[in-house]
Amino acid sequence: MTNQRDLDMVHLRLILVSGKTQDFTFSPNDSATDIAKHVFDNWPAGWEEERVSSPSILRLIFQGRFLHGNVTLGALKLPPGRTTVMHLVARETLPEPNSHGQRNREKTTESNCCLLL
């Protein structure tokens, strides 16, 4: 029998660049930083070749976007009790916000034109 706590948990399938996967279960209150630390501290046996030197360089990618450290799984509105796929990569820094912001501004401009028509 499944209890309510299990239903509230978020199941993640993390994929490395190499294509290797591993499933983990987290609380909706866990942040991207919490997840990186947990994965680092519980590094899967099959991922030894990809082991990193520090949890601080592990980054999660969800729907094509890097998750910043304080973003919680609950904030992403992931479906509880179902498995969500995310990529896990080793990267010292996140992409420059300026380049990402520029892309968003261009999209916003296009959207405004369409809305005015």
UniProtKB/TrEMBL annotation:
Q: Which UniProt keywords apply?
A: Cell membrane, Lipoprotein, Membrane, Methylation, Palmitate, Prenylation
Q: Name one Pfam family in it.
A: Rad60-SLD_2
Q: Does the keyword tRNA-binding apply?
A: no
Q: Does the keyword Cell inner membrane apply?
A: no
Region annotated Disordered, chain positions: 93-112
Annotated Ubiquitin-like domain ranges read 10-88
Q: What is this protein called?
A: Ubiquitin-like protein
Task: Indicate where this protein is primarily found.
Answer: membrane
**Topology within the bilayer:** Lipid-anchor
Q: Which GO terms describe its cellular component?
A: plasma membrane
Localization per Swiss-Prot or TrEMBL: Cell membrane
| Organism (species) | Cynoglossus semilaevis (Tongue sole)
